Amino acid sequence: MEVEVKATFNPNIYWTSLISGGVAGLFVDIALFPIDTIKTRLQSERGFKRSGGFTGIYKGIGPVAAGSSPTAALFFWEPVTGLSSTPFSVALCGAISGGIAAGITTPLDVIKTRIMLADAGSKNTSVRNVAKSIYREKGVKGFFAGFVPRVLWITIGIDVLDSLDLLSDTAKQNIIDWIYSLQVIPNSDVHCGGFQGATTLNLLDCPEKYSTDDYKWGHLAMTYTCIATLIILGDDLSRLNRKSIIEGRSVAAVQRPNGSFSASIEGNEYDMRFVYCACCICHMLNDWGCVNKSTMGAYIINSIRYDGGVSQHFEMESHGGTTFCALAALQLSDQLELLSSTQREKIKRWLLFRQDGGFQGRPNKPIDSCYSFWIGAALKIVGAFELSNFKENKDYILSCQDSVVGGFSKWPGISSDPFHTYFGLCGLSFLREPGLLEVMPSLNISMRAYERLQQLWNSQSNNDVQLNID
Ligand SMILES: [Zn+2]
């Protein structure tokens, strides 16, 4: 794999880019801030109006402004190091600087979210007061609520780059402990197990009316990514409360009569994305508990559309992401044979027609590097990946690589991010690029991590030891 490296390097370009990038970032953040406020208040468990409605939509702008420039500066880490640009070093650089940027900006994000959600008319919404109250309640770790979801992408990406040894044993253990701190154990007040996405819920400070426990429940996407990350980091899953996840309290508890799944026990959409997450969880734990596989299989088959692709839910538009979810769910649940030969051939055709250099998610949409994973993995599951054009796919993914910042973006010439960096690497792994671990298409983790998981299953059955089932 080769990457062009510009022969000359003018140091002024670095400073000009740094300053203009910082200023541009600041203006974009300020311009989009009101939309972010409204979105955050709409998502608030306390309701839109009580969280402030449309008033004070610039509350919390201070921490955002403070975070804009350092983030831009961090993205210029790689030219400063003077390391040679290879796809490997550039991607690794993007992953690590993304992690550092997340580490610095997350505390500011936590403060911003709290100010946005403060009661209308509340006096204690200065950055200083909010920071003090978070520290009083939770200490330093309170500032890192929501940090793990970003760490998950970065950890998986570092594994595919075969560079997990960059994380010290202590760092790995800290991530493992942090993930277990998100595990929800059902009791008389908490109704659904699994993992929650962040410690943010633990920060609500109005116990008289909104007890934290009322809102504590697992989320299927977070449960899937947390277990996958634990496996990647070499954890033995012994602290996992399998009973609360499998036996009717988590995965099966969110299955709908039509066979689909919602993300959590209350107030959520139910569609193909969560069908996929449910299958990943059951497959990784090697236990399908009370999940009704046949109604789930029927839900998937009934979501196949006239053009051959699969939609997010009945009667919707075929989509590359949901076609992947559907096929991976069928494979993980050992039900691929539910597809008739005609359906299988039409899906292959629909998927192959998504290639236009790189891959697009739907007809008439621009190509995007992450679809080299979504469509590529789906093609691998139905055994048609070899029919795609490898060279055009590889050329497009590499054109999305940022040789200054590191990592991959969705389109050439825009900012790279951990999400597209990870999926760009997966796309290259499918093309058997050297230096990258093989990725398991359906479960979306490295084959090395999957083999470790299989060893775990074998050792459990050999020793006849059931993992924590209380
Ligand atoms: Zn994308």
What does this structure look like?
The chain is mainly α. It has a domain at 15-145: Mitochondrial carrier fold (Alpha/alpha barrel), CATH 1.50.40.10. It has helices at 11-43, 61-74, 77-81, 87-117, 127-138, 147-160, 169-180, 220-232, 242-246, 272-284, 293-301, 320-332, 341-352, 371-381, 390-399, 418-430, 447-463; strands at 183-184, 194-195, 261-262, 270-271, 355-356, 358-359, 439-440, 445-446. The strands form 4 sheets. The protein has a two-stranded antiparallel sheet with strand order 1-2. Strands 3-4 form a two-stranded antiparallel ribbon. Strand 5 and strand 6 form a beta hairpin. Helix 4 (87-117) runs antiparallel to helix 6. The chain is globular. The site of zinc ion (ZN) has 4 residues, from loops. It comes from Clunio marinus. Residues 151-445 form the Prenyltransferase alpha-alpha toroid domain. Keywords: Magnesium, Membrane, Metal-binding, Prenyltransferase, Repeat, Transferase, Transmembrane, Transmembrane helix, Transport, Zinc. Solcar repeats lie at residues 12-84, 85-170.
